[in-house]
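queue> holo job accepted (tetrahydrodeoxyuridine)
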Amino acid sequence: MTQQLSFSYEEWPDDAALSEQDRTLLEEARRVTELAYAPYSNFWVGAAARLVSGSLVVGTNQENASYPVGICAERVLLGHAAVRFPNDPIETIAISYHPKDRSSQIPLYPCGMCRQALLEQEIRFQRPMRLILSGMEGKVHVIESAQSLLPFAFTGQGLRS
Ligand code: THU
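queue> job finished
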């Protein structure tokens, strides 16, 4: 029997439609792109998370001369949150980026590896994580759960006896 999967997301022309709290978070993600270490790709990514307690955590991509050693902003953020606030789940993550010396208008979607890492956090804390995705200006997408970005994910079920 044929099955179908779909999910809903919000799309806004710019950040004016966001709540003040969400707009502030996106502004922070845009601001921290400046803290990226991306001398190889020149693609500067910033992520900012608001935790359930209200605390703020950020991450940026950190590259390496041995290219595969580099790590995305999203996973730097997850590690940062896990050690600073171990029992405080992430409520919302905003992600932005820009190529060196240029702006960006199209939302950035987390890579496959980061989707897997984001999903694990949702499972671990039994709580969906909202994602706010946008370039340095223009269109904004809001997704209610990282899980919708990775259907049929490997969740580790069956790993443990
Ligand atoms: N990158 C991120 O930090 N997050 C993403 O969602 C996509 C890609 C980084 C990895 C690398 O440093 C650069 O962007 C180009 O791929």
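queue> The chain has a mean pLDDT of 97.
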